[in-house]
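User: Second chain of the day. Same drill as before.
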Amino acid sequence: MEKRTCPRLATGLPVPLVALLSAATGLIFALGLTGCENRPTESSKKVTQPLKLRPSTSGPKQPAPTEAEFYASKCEGGDWAGCYDLGVLYDFGRGVKQDYKKSATFYQQACDGDFLIACSNLGIQYDEGLGVKKDQVRAASLYEKACTSPDGPTRKNACFNLALMYSKGVGVAKDATKSAEFYLEACKASSPVGCYNLGLLYDRGEGVPQDIKRAARLYQTACDGSHLDGCNNLALAMQKGRGVRRDQAGAAGLFQSGCDKGNARCCMNLARLFRTGNGVKKNFTQSLGYFQKGCATGHKWACFELGQMHEKGEGVTADVSNAKALYNKACRLGVEKACESATRLGGQ
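Assistant: Same format as last time:
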């Protein structure tokens, strides 16, 4: 099954221990390590790729039908799966010219026939205004219909997208309780990011009673599903003994694993451990390397603290010029302290 991504993020889902930016323009909530941020990842939007047609090994030799011709014939005969697959071809321009209007038409036919994954895909098109007039109320209605699907992947993505809409109040009235309800459905259908976002709600007690133990379990589930922000938040919980047994070494291991896989927040937190000697032997050289990795991927606080180390000469020869450049970068990324530091050094 091929997955399609859409840049809609959950908002207003802050996690304790870390200043969480839950969307590109989301809400900041700080507790504990001021400035350490986290955010839910992009939502996964499904689309199954139709199987390739197998060539005939018997009978008269005739030109093989194209995929589009094959599925068009199926759709015309009332096969809703055929209508859906034809919609996929037009949605992604596979063997045909990409045409969102046509994909929407075929998804609608399939959805009307209760082929529910088509409802979810059609919801995406209404959500984003692809081939149809943007209508997020209709998108929410389509996601809700698809969320009842017995098919796990369909339910996972549709329920997750609907939860996002309730969390932001887009297409529906903002409702944290409803958001939690649909994140739970997504999580039960094996959505790591659904489990992660639900963990954020339990961590803060938003839409559900606060339960830090359950939050930690949900972060564990998300981490087990390779959602690296889940690993980061689980490590933060382990570091403080919040909802789980305190385990500094285990936290460092999770940060290390997540950083090695490219998660900037894990790199940031690992760098802080080496800078402070919290749970690991203090090592400014290691700290610099992980801050550099985090800053290179756009983590604003990694850039700020890297600037501090260059200014103070921690693990590197003090260099005001480099410090100023790093403060300026962090300032552009939104760290007010960095703007002040850059101004103090004659930057900006």
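The radius of gyration is 24 Å.

User: Great, on to the next one.
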